[in-house]
Amino acid sequence: SRAKVVTTDPVARAQILHRHPRLEVELAPERADLLMGLRRGRWQAACVSSALLEAGWTTTLHVETIESDEVIPAVGLGAVAVLVRAGDLRNRERAARINEAATAHLLDAERSFLRHLPRMAGALGTARAVRAGNILKLTGLIVERDGAWLALDEAEASVRFGEVIACDVASACDGLANDLRVPSPTPRRAAS
Which of 66, 135, 176, 182 keeps 20 to 30 A from 41, CA to CA? Predict the structure, then answer.
């Protein structure tokens, strides 16, 4: 029988299936179900967000960190921001005093990547933006829901070009994904 892994994130599930096709990866609908299933032996491992680890619910379990280079988290995971309706200038000014500009640039780039992706049946996308000084590096990913293919691209430039980088990376990922969507018996990965 195959080892069973659980996660609460469909994008993480698809990435794990792509990297480890011999695993059985399930989605847990609730955190409590995930914890109870681990304790009862339903699953041998779980891929969860750092927020769940920080909540202290894993004190009786062995925990290892998975680097974000291995499983790219969902867009905006771990970021806190105040969202304001378009045209709401009064509240936009208030939010500007609260939101951190550096984080906002990263979130804008990640969300822009998703906006520029074409809708593909059975595919999921995510992006991760990091900043080093005035340079923004964006890694974008499109993965087939069951892990059969994965397309990855990244680019970096000045922070003020986040929208341009996001558009370029989304376009490159889409091109790679189009090449990979041809049915294949084994998982395939493309990176530019």
Answer: 66
CA distance 152 to 31: 29
Sign of the torsion formed by the C-alpha atoms of 76, 82, 85 and 90 = negative
Report yes or no on whether pTM surpasses 0.85.
no
Distance CA 59, CA 53 (A): 9
Tokens of 29: 């609908």
Q: What is the pLDDT at residue 43?
A: 86
Q: What is the pLDDT of residue 120?
A: 72
DSSP assignment of 42-60 equals S-SEEE--HHHHHTTTTTT
CA-wise closest residue to 126 among 86, 154, 158, 159: 154
pLDDT reported for residue 189: 64
Q: Is 115 strand, coil or helix?
A: helix
Classify residue 160 by its DSSP letter.
G
* 186 token code pair: 């084994």
pLDDT category at 21 given cuts 50, 70, 90 is: confident
